[in-house]
Amino acid sequence: MWHPAGGQRGRRPSVDGSRRLLTQIHDAVIDGRVSEGFIEHPTLHVYGDYDPATDHITINLPLLRACVIVHEALHRLYPRWSETTVRRRTTQLMLRLTDDDVRTLDARVVAATAATTRKRRARVRGTARSSRRG
Ligand SMILES: [Zn+2]
Q1: How far does the centroid of ligand 1 lie from the alpha carbon of residue 106, in Å?
Q2: Is the N or the C terminus of the chain less surrounded, counting Cβ atoms within 10 Å?
Q3: Ligand 1: distance of its center to the CA of 74 in Å?
């Protein structure tokens, strides 16, 4: 399980060490052994999980999207808030969200994202570059 509140900052490995570790992480992303899905937990928001029994990694994309939209929406709603304030309020709100709150918010984000993606694709198709091809 991983939770951003448990993350450490400040002490960073060397650049070479980081590159080596990143290469190892790329190698650990194995086809068929990584999936996305909502992870239920009675008391915690769980962003990801590694199951050693099945050697499978699950990424809780709905929770990640909810966390990102809470943070960025706070920037939109309260542009005068500092980054520190937005981060603090994001953490406070995320701790209060139920699984249903997360699912509902994620569904809203997915719908809004799909609408935006459709509009952007339509705009790209209408450009001079694509017209020359078509
Ligand atoms: Zn921010």
Answers
A1: 19
A2: C
A3: 8
* 58 token code pair: 């699950």
- The pLDDT tens digits for 39-63 are 998 889 999 999 999 999 999 999 9
Contact 51, 34 (CB under 8 A): no
In angstroms, rounded to a whole number, what is the distance separating the alpha carbons of residues 131 and 134?
Answer: 5
Expressed in angstroms and rounded, the spacing between residue 82 Cα and the centre of ligand 1 is 8
SS3 content of the chain, % helix, strand, coil (to 5): 60, 10, 30
pLDDT in tens, 74-115: 999 999 999 999 999 999 999 999 999 999 999 999 999 998
